[in-house]
């Protein structure tokens, strides 16, 4: 991971300067502020700011449900109750702002989560740096033979070498040409907004990304999932660790009810009831398709 | 305005306890934290939390526009530039959380602004308090005779007295019956979620409302406007004062470009050009309808 | 249910005039167009327009997943796959526009679903009609004694009569005073935007509500649920019938995976695995709280 | 522009098959359905579906404002009034669904408009086609020397040739290597989700994009503007023509109030008032910065 010297100087300055505030402070989060968490070969996640903590979730819920929440004894119990029953608005009362450096093809997946605020580095205005994601050998995966969007084992030997050579050489050449095209030494220089079109999708971009906790957890559920593409999952994993320090009760409930949980169909629930009564249930008599049955068996693991 | 003793105790406790943070702190905002700003007869606005300041707007813009923003000398200039050219995303990087107590008919207008997070007191779970908005004599306005949604002068004499008597008596009677219906003394007691339907729209509710600065300014532009209903305008005015202390550069730019500005049509701009050339422009030769012309003359004041 | 004579005339005119279109047409939906489906004592749901059908969901999915979706044999299988794996964007490609007449306290719940477009009748501009929701005897439920937001059995005898008398008399009196306050016979007349505050929450309002199918199904999952308040559930039920005619495959998948399904936590899944192995699992050794366990037993019912 | 044979066959089939519907039909729009409007060298815009027309905007507005809108004589006058006073919700009652083929760097700008529904072709699942945007000679613009994000005159002679050669050769080589990397002839074959990272930003992608009229007009205001990048502006221009045929009154009002209009600050309005009184106003005594003054003079131009 590479922070520019200016970015490092900014971090050092900011981390030196604690100020008093009357707002809610999440102690576990202060340690993350500004420090860059390395992800992939040149990327990072930095916490720029946050609002609220576990108590803020409960405070908002208690405004809604008034005396109705008094019966829940404590904050952790209340948070588990809210998560279990899909009460999303109290979790929206916490907010986080991250600075993320990431490859463009990852950014294109990420941005599909619409309920967030984004300021991305603009290659219309400014010149991109010569930084490209090149997979580590163990991440150089083959196409899955069973799944259109999945990965198989890592490539090996000559095939792996050739792929890495293509990725490296094409990126370097594309960047050389990018520089030559925009250069104004002895020529007009192509507009930046055009020249960028020559750059491949593994070039790094960066953005500020601000999102509320409810929508962040939704993002993490999809992107920290084992079916997510590895290159976005490592970002999601890094953010999971941050969230665990920020709102520990909410994160634990999220792990239990979302990450580790599963949604079962009416048909699947019925199969479980039959199985618990001792009936032999098979795909054929389950009412499920083969694909569904395979997933069902996977859940019951 | 009435804070409950519990709410006052909570404020006192929270205001006493400054903690160190590495996050951006807006000094003008710390003084507002938790303190209730009275609005109408029983309402209030309280700042519960905030994220960011004027510098945070610039920091996000500089991520986007990179070296492109270096030419703007200072933060205030950059913020004015962003506001003038409708760059909304940097303003989305600031966030505020308010606790608001307000009459239901005001809440119904307010909630139409969808890009915000809300936790409202639930009358399904809990019992509403006996607090109703009764307009002050000077706010007891007649229906405008020129405008379907406007107000005329204040009612006077017997008519004013009768209106106030109706509002007060009907509210008290409705609340008496609400209490009787839900009472479980010697009867089953009607479900709260049903009993609340007897309560008029001037009863007070309360909510936590969290919104980013861009969407807040959009709300304020519409609701602090002279055409907004007085009862929501006073909330918008109170929030304007808070925003001016929070992000003074952004607020000043907002006043110049939004609150005090005007959008002119192609036709109106053409009329101005003709007038500046010395031509006599009238409604008849302007290309505008009577209504448009009246508004145009109002803008040129 | 009461349609005004103007509304009925409009329906008659519109239903008479089929025109040719090249767009996707959902035969099951054409029969619903404009016809008002009665809900509660004076409310209704009317389909004003729709976009797309089951085939449009698949068409959009096939753009995304290209040849990847060819392996799924048919539209119904593909829709079930999309629903099971929470692919929301193809369902967003269908849209519906409804005209709904509903009590204000129902509208206040409904509007919390933010991802929709709404045009509500404005009581600032116009005068509300004298129409109030008065519960049918069987819907006049007592407060639940076990659940803060629930309902118990219907009230009976003198208590029921007294409640109905209060609701009717208070509504009539409030409306009489509303009319007197805004009247301009021999007086100035209170502004409509103020007078409306005297009206109780069981008065009817109406709006146009436009929403995509994904967000509509989310709404229906929450509001057609047995825990939803009866007065909004009857609207959700009416809309469920419309959706079943509009996109039958999507609706059937929704019933199986959402309405009839359940999300189980990691802990709950673990308990099921233990039970299937023959272990005796009780609340004490389940790792669940009493509340969770009660819900878990309910699901396995 | 290249439609695949399958796409052309689909168009031909769909255009042949008019069916009766009771919904609102916009005659000007039916002719656009499915036909691909060519944009850039390989891109297109196709109307897949639409909901509503000018009359639907008025119908929704009349629900809101009731008798208050009767005073506006006709639909066109009402639409102009709504547009002038920023009433956005009636315009949200119309919806359009487009199929768009566009270069990835254009897609990256486009997707920043969040209030829309999108299904994009997935290069995780499927293999992208060998189609790249190569600018026409007159679009091969130099970087502006006065504006960080602007364009100057077209490149000429050897410089132009060199740029085109780089763009073409790098795209072809990148695609050759993409194909070789995913090939499973005698090797494992790199996962598609990884191989795509080698492709430059001028490769074409495609998506279904569905948006309401209010948000579409906002998109068009920004992207059909002279400051927008040429490569997205040509898409916006193509859509403008479609909208003009779909909702002619709304489009005309949009042209007058948005595209041809301008928002002036309080300071600028004050300057106009002074000028109309005969005062000599210069940048120095205007209260504006040099940049603002330049823009102000441009508006009065």
From TrEMBL, chains A, B, C, D:
The protein's Enzyme Commission number? 2.1.1.148
**Keywords in alphabetical order:** Methyltransferase, Transferase
Origin, by domain of life?
Answer: Bacteria
- UniProt keyword Transferase, yes or no: yes
Q: What class of enzyme is it?
A: transferase
State the protein's name.
FAD-dependent thymidylate synthase
Origin organism lineage: Bacteria, Pseudomonadati, Pseudomonadota, Alphaproteobacteria, Rhodobacterales
